[in-house]
Amino acid sequence: xxxxxxxxxxxxxxxxxxxxxxxxxxxxxxxxxxxxxxxxxxxxxxxxxxxxxxxxxxxxxxxxxxxxxxxxxxxxxxxxxxxxxxxxxxxxxxxxxxxxxxxxxxxxxxxxxxxxxxxxxxxxxxxxxxxxxxxxxxxxxxxxxxxxxxxxxxxxxxxxxxxxxxxxxxxxxxxxxxxxxxxxxxxxxxxxxxxxxxxxxxxxxxxxxxxxxxxxxxxxxxxxxxxxxxxxxxxxxxxxxxxxxxxxxxxxxxxxxxxxxxxxxxxxxxxxxxxxxxxxxxxxxxxxxxxxxxxxxxxxxxxxxxxxxxxxxxxxxxxxxxxxxxxxxxxxxxxxxxxxxxxxxxxxxx
Amino acid sequence: xxxxxxxxxxxxxxxxxxxxxxxxxxxxxxxxxxxxxxxxxxxxxxxxxxxxxxxxxxxxxxxxxxxxxxxxxxxxxxxxxxxxxxxxxxxxxxxxxxxxxxxxxxxxxxxxxxxxxxxxxxxxxxxxxxxxxxxxxxxxxxxxxxxxxxxxxxxxxxxxxxxxxxxxxxxxxxxxxxxxxxxxxxxxxxxxxxxxxxxxxxxxxxxxxxxxxxxxxxxxxxxxxxxxxxxxxxxxxxxxxxxxxxxxxxxxxxxxxxxxxxxxxxxxxxxxxxxxxxxxxxxxxxxxxxxxxxxxxxxxxxxxxxxxxxxxxxxxxxxxxxxxxxxxxxxxxxxxxxxxxxxxxxxxxxxxxxxxxxxxxxxxxxxxxxxxxxxxxxxxxxxxxxxxxxxxxxxxxxxxxxxxxxxxxxxxxxxxxxxxxxxxxxxxxxxxxxxxxxxxxxxxxxxxxxxxxxxxxxxxxxxxxxxxxxxxxxxxxxxxxxxxxxxxxxxxxxxxxxxxxxxxxxxxxxxxxxxxxxxxxxxxxxxxxxxxxxxxxxxxxxxxxxxxxxxxxxxxxxxxxx
Amino acid sequence: xxxxxxxxxxxxxxxxxxxxxxxxxxxxxxxxxxxxxxxxxxxxxxxxxxxxxxxxxxxxxxxxxxxxxxxxxxxxxxxxxxxxxxxxxxxxxxxxxxxxxxxxxxxxxxxxxxxxxxxxxxxxxxxxxxxxxxxxxxxxxxxxxxxxxxxxxxxxxxxxxxxxxxxxxxxxxxxxxxxxxxxxxxxxxxxxxxxxxxxx
Lengths: 350, 562, 200
Ligand code: HEA
Ligand code: HEA
Ligand code: CUA
Ligand SMILES: [Cu+2]
Fold this sequence. Notes:
Chain A: Its cofactor is Cu cation. Chain A: This is Cytochrome c oxidase subunit 2. Chain A: Pfam families: COX2 (PF00116), COX2_TM (PF02790), Cytochrom_C (PF00034). Chain A: InterPro entries: CcO_II, CcO_II-like_C, Cupredoxin, CuRO_CcO_Caa3_II, Cyt_c-like_dom, Cyt_c-like_dom_sf, Cyt_c_oxidase_su2, Cyt_c_oxidase_su2_TM_dom. Chain C: It comes from Granulicella sibirica. The complex is a heterotrimer of chains A (about 350), B (about 550) and C (about 200). With about 350 residues, chain A is of the alpha+beta class. In chain A, about 40% of the residues lie in helices and about 15% in strands. The N terminus of chain A is likely disordered. With about 550 residues, chain B is mainly α. Chain B has one domain: Cytochrome C Oxidase, Chain A, CATH 1.20.210.10. By secondary structure, chain C is an all-alpha fold. Chain C contains 6 helices and 1 strand, in the order βαααααα. In chain C, helix 3 packs antiparallel against helix 4. Chain C is globular. The model of chain C has no long low-confidence stretch (mean pLDDT about 90). The chains are: A alpha+beta (about 350), B mainly alpha (about 550), C mainly alpha (about 200). At the A-B interface, helix 1, helix 2, helix 3 and strand 9 of A face helix 3, helix 7, helix 8, helix 9 and helix 10 of B. The complex binds heme-A (2 copies), dinuclear copper ion and copper (II) ion (CU). One heme-A sits at the interface of chains B and A.
């Protein structure tokens, strides 16, 4: 009976390894291009960690196979035979053996030292990496439940969608993130680019990322920060140098003043919106919510929760809790007419 | 099934002729009791009740997570669920059940008639029990005067500043702190009792190096409670001061530090997990030898390893904080200290292996659960090693991989050993055997459920799924895995219900156990089942680690080898 | 089930078997646990030294409580004498020493009360003022609450002693209590060093 148990256990474990492996190496299902598997690294820190992970994983797997195998053998080999059921005979009593015990103390020590040295190298190579001349600085501030990004040297403030240049291995241009929080703890985790780092109020942390290919990298907040922790999603756009330059140029512009959206702008400015949101070049200078200067140019709203379409915008402004219940933006109770106007205005903020 | 010990005597006839008693009288007796066995049983019953409650909360979470974008529960309800589930499982299931067995077994195993401080014992139990009730009162009574019911939703480690008044208004967090504070006081009281009992109440001849390993492990666990639970108590006092008197310990706006709370919590939190697992090791140390029919291999090494684990575990707490931005030096230190724990833990695994080696293994249900424990603890330990490599943890930390790691220990190792302990000691506690056939159903269903749930839970973590999210998008590739994970929870639920049924059924209908149904070797099996209030008619004297073995095998007693 | 059957392990009467007293072991455990609590508060105090955003600072408002500290520390000696006296069966001496202990402890408490009064009403430092206030009141207050508990117990012992209910049979109990009191004193040494010497 029990040999079956352990057999099942072992084969389950092997099956899991196999299944897991094929799952992990593939880009996740449904044709999504940018998965979040830590085993599909796309930047230096993620690569280094991946290398270490494989080492640790294989050593642990080896230990599992050896110790688990031994265990299985013992459990089968030394089971009580049915013929033996009623015999009073007890097996030989063995109380210990210093030699053997010493060996299974020393061997694990050696393994531990190995693992430790390998780990230390990765810790230092990531945390104490030399910073190249060409690099970008971004300040990341976590908010309940959205991300604020500031580019101090470029004078850009944006939210929720982080644009950075790809980093060419020949001339690396990594992005250095200086991170803090405006309220509770958060954590910045884009698995394909790097490990996570927490954003903690009253404390400054740093990390760096250097995507090697243009594209969108997903992630999400990885430290429980309140009701909508689940929908504090991360989107990192790695742009080619030209695209990035164009993006920067665009973001530096003040908000567009489209006369056709003047009515919406008026509604926006006569409501509390301006006490929480900034639209550069207007009276709206609030800091509590995301900067909306170029909200129209973003792909998603509400920290990646839904695509940025006029319909979604309208629903969101009407009832922010619709997509993210518990969100900190209150419903403003605008009438249909004003809602349409504000939506039209937001759409023009390209 | 078992052989009676060769030296038997008619012991006690008082119990047989008691008149049936009124319900109220019985209740009164239990509420006012200071008998360590009754208190132990109350601890156990109370823990089982909360196991079902917290397990039910787990089921609700798993239903919510089974499919993407589910709206089975609201975000806030989900956050409350995992907070209540984690807090309940750790403080109101894990701790009381272990202390329950400790209370019951330690005096019996050292040949004592009661604990050192029987009244303190009762006090500790009732304080903890009150803590648990208070926690759940939050669901009913809620915000007191201020509004509707509100369970805490800050997570079981309640990171600052989420617990501050600004971010957590109302009283939900107060329920959490007070409940945890109370349970901590109860735990310290019981630990004190266990230490004093072990040191001061041993029967003649029971030298320290002759104590059953279970007693040793409870001694180590209890010592750890003093140095681990007290910091938590201190931190809770600070949090209460912050919330009620407006002090600024964890107030980041006034220069306070959120990281300080993390340190304080994990200085408790890490040793706590060993506090929970050492008693599980303790059960294994008693059960595995008896069903292998061999003495434990390397008794001194087992003791040394436990003490070693106790000490090392005090220096590893920051492995829960690899992502808070500690310097490379600190990360390196905590990586090393954490990995070092593999050495004494390995010694234990190998000594159990050696105990089995050459034995005559009897697969009773208790032993089956122990075997499950061995495999699962091995895997859980190894995933722990992966997490302890700090860069690997930068990826895995706070993901479902961590959730899988710790459930592998908490369920796969600890809960499995608790089940084993029930099958092993239930006959002693009630005088009736648990049904082995139902037990096997329980084992297999739970095993399947466990592996469905927690094997597959590792993978979403690797695929980037963070923990504590109430829902996720369909396009992330986590759907199938979550589905499988959730389905396993139902197997576990059915198995647990079977187990509860088995206990109730066997209490009335189970075969009579007799004093020593497993042909075991420690002192608790030398008295009747259930033991009388005074435990032993005459206080025993021992000359070796396995007094009953000596009695049964006068030709080859242990005394020769020690 | 009228005949319950069990093995009886023979009792070997002539073995010499002596174990430590449970009162003392229990108190040692309690002290270990309490010491851990104090360590956490001390760590918090040291961690927040100089981190307050606003004043007042320790240097501006704290004065060394030398006299009261001497009182508290000497009460450790007096309680010790009380135990010795009781052990020797001198009950009235014991009462005397106990009374002195309670008096010295009371002076210490009064000193703390006065210090707090001054801090609150003259210097405007409360637990909400800044991190210094937070950590100061909680650490010193935690200690003071232990002094209060100890004083209460000692006063109780004194009452028993005066009524003549405390005899040399109770030496061990009084000793356990005195252990607690020594601990409270030892903690004060740490608190004094951290708050008034290191922190000022
Ligand atoms: C009883 C419970 C228990 C136990 C025993 C353990 C045991 C271990 N745990 Fe686990 N752990 C938890 C419960 C437990 N853990 C919980 C609850 C959390 C999460 C808390 C939360 O965030 O909510 C957690 C989280 C956790 C983390 C933090 C993850 C994160 O949040 O980022 C880490 C990181 O290092 C870790 C490591 C370890 C290690 C190294 C061990 C070791 O003790 C394991 C040692 C055992 C072995 C290694 C196997 C046997 C040894 C051999 C066969 C010898 C040969 C082996 C080698 C040489 C490697 N654990
Ligand atoms: C001893 C500790 C322990 C135990 C035994 C368990 C047992 C289980 N746990 Fe738990 N868990 C924790 C400790 C534990 N857990 C901790 C500390 C956390 C972290 C919390 C936090 O993040 O703050 C956590 C978090 C946690 C999460 C993560 C939540 C999140 O991060 O979002 C999940 C999700 O699947 C989960 C699932 C389960 C399941 C399915 C079981 C199953 O094994 C449960 C099996 C038992 C039952 C199923 C009960 C059976 C009986 C019934 C159900 C009766 C039914 C009644 C009627 C029908 C009337 N647990
Ligand atoms: Cu921000 Cu979780
Ligand atoms: Cu830990």
